[in-house]
Design goal:
The complex is a heterodimer of chains A (about 160) and B (about 120). Chain A contains four helices and ten strands, in the order αβββββαααβββββ. Chain A is α+β, with helices and mostly antiparallel strands and about 160 residues long. In chain A, a hairpin with a 2-residue loop joins strand 9 and strand 10. By secondary structure, chain B is α/β, with parallel strands linked by helices. In chain B, strand 4, helix 4 and strand 5 form a beta-alpha-beta unit. Classes of the chains: A alpha+beta (about 160), B alpha/beta (about 120).
């Protein structure tokens, strides 16, 4: 079962991602606001426009989701220097963000935290489609006024 | 000097390509290890940036396969896998550097500079 230290690992990954993004673009690092995590009910619908999903295996098992609105992904793409901002790039970006956040968690969780290549889903997700862990945490955050959520469904 | 960018993410291939545009005369892009080996055999890039988590053929396997027929290739692993064991494994398999995602343009430029310098000394 995951505990507070696991949540902090993902808070660290999230902070690191947006700090680097801000450093790359000369933006302010305090644009990221992470809210208190909460437990996901098994019947809830989750997800914004795009969701990136990483399967976790090894010493831990489960899934890590990141879900964001199209507006946030377009903003990040612009900062990365993209001009098209099309659907292919938005899907690719959400998958890459999921991969980066889960991969960076290995800094604390070690090489036994195996991650898959990302899968991307558009639109709202019915959580019953996935076998989520009994204690599935949602970490809401806001970056430059855009809301998004990191969902951690991992057991050890 | 020719560069090949190997990454399953289009956004990352574009970002690396834009950052390193002025350093290389030609930039090739591959979205997995299989495509990377094909391109490397035909185009002989001197420097390669290599993701690790990719479909079809992962980065460590690709590094080994590539160095079998092009042992002088300078390889910078660019991966989100941030643990020390992964970095050590990549370096022992023959990569010349390891850069953790996310990265800034300056961090990428410095890492590529080190890989190019190491290759020249060899």
């Amino acid at each position: 079962m995951i505990d507070r230290s696991h949540i902090e690992v993902f808070v660290d990954s999230l902070t690191r991602y947006f700090t680097h993004l801000n450093q790359s673009t000369g933006s302010h690092s305090d644009d990221l606001e992470i809210s208190a995590p909460y437990l996901l009910s098994s019947k809830e619908l989750v997800g914004f426009d795009y969701t990136g999903i990483i399967n976790v295996s090894g010493r831990h098992s489960g899934k890590v989701f990141i879900t964001a609105r199209s507006s946030m992904l377009k903003r990040i793409l612009l900062l990365l220097g993209e001009q098209e901002l099309n659907e292919e790039l938005r899907r690719d970006l959400i998958g890459e963000v999921a991969n980066t956040l889960a991969g960076n968690a290995r800094r604390h969780l070690g090489a036994d935290f195996h991650i898959s290549t990302p899968k991307v889903i558009e639109g709202v997700i019915e959580t019953t489609r996935f076998k989520l862990s009994p204690r599935c945490f949602v970490l809401p955050f806001r970056w430059k006024s855009n809301v998004a959520e990191l969902i951690i469904s991992v057991e050890s | 000097m020719k560069l090949m960018i190997v990454d399953d993410s289009l956004v990352i291939r574009n970002k690396i390509g834009r950052c390193l545009l002025n350093r290389f005369s030609k930039i090739y892009r591959a979205n997995d290890g299989v495509q990377a080996i094909e391109i490397a055999r035909k185009k002989n890039p001197e420097i390669v940036t290599m993701d690790l988590t990719m479909p079809n053929m992962g980065g460590v396997e690709t590094v080994e396969a590539l160095l079998e027929f092009a042992p002088e290739t300078g390889i910078l692993v660019v991966s989100a896998l941030a643990d020390k064991a992964t970095a050590i494994e990549a370096l022992t398999k023959g990569a010349n550097g390891f850069l953790c995602k996310p990265f800034t343009e300056k961090e990428l430029d410095n890492a590529i500079e080190r890989v190019i310098s190491m290759r020249v000394k060899q």
